[in-house]
Design goal:
The radius of gyration is 19 Å and the shape is elongated. The chain is an all-alpha fold. It starts with a helix and ends in a 9-residue tail after the last helix. It has a domain at about 60-135: Four Helix Bundle (Hemerythrin (Met), subunit A) (Up-down Bundle). It is about 80% helix and about 0% strand.
């Protein structure tokens, strides 16, 4: 029973990490061309920049901020996946080493906390770059975009 509970926790942790992992993936496929998803994201980002009325300096700062945090996120995801593998290996053993399991679990929690810190830092940097009016407009657009996702069921259909 205890092994089953730990397996359930591992599964939930894996899902909470693997879903956002796609967003931290390499920006270009092996052939050097951007995927259609990334092309759409670039187009939407440029459209947002235009709607916010950003100058060239602001655009450069936001791109630098995005690139910096993308690299940090990729590194954190790599560490998280390594720890998930370690935890999975420990849970598959006949004799459970509870000390190793809890140690790895605590490391996973620390890495997730770093992800949240990284996200907060990214938001604070955006706030510094934008004027108060631009940031307010940015927040409104992000809230509208997020409400669209909140109003969908688990299969991606509107409720």
């Amino acid at each position: 029973m205890r092994k089953l509970n730990l397996l359930a926790i591992l599964t939930i942790a894996a899902l909470s990490v693997s879903v956002p992992a796609g967003y931290a993936a390499s920006p270009t496929p092996a052939n050097g061309q951007k995927s259609s998803f990334l092309q759409k994201m670039d187009t939407k980002r440029k459209q947002l920049y235009d709607e916010l009325g950003l100058n060239n300096e602001q655009r450069k700062l936001l791109e630098a901020n995005k690139d910096k945090h993308r690299e940090q996120t990729k590194a954190l995801f790599s560490q998280i996946h390594q720890n998930m593998d370690l935890l999975r290996q420990e849970l598959e053993k006949n004799e459970l080493d509870m000390q190793a399991i809890y140690k790895t679990n605590n490391e996973l929690k620390e890495l997730q906390a770093q992800m949240f810190d990284n996200r907060l830092e990214r938001i604070l940097e955006v706030r510094k770059i934008l004027t108060p009016e631009q940031f307010k407009k940015f927040e409104e657009k992000m809230n509208k975009r997020m409400s669209h996702f909140k109003n969908r069921d688990k299969y991606g259909k509107d409720r």
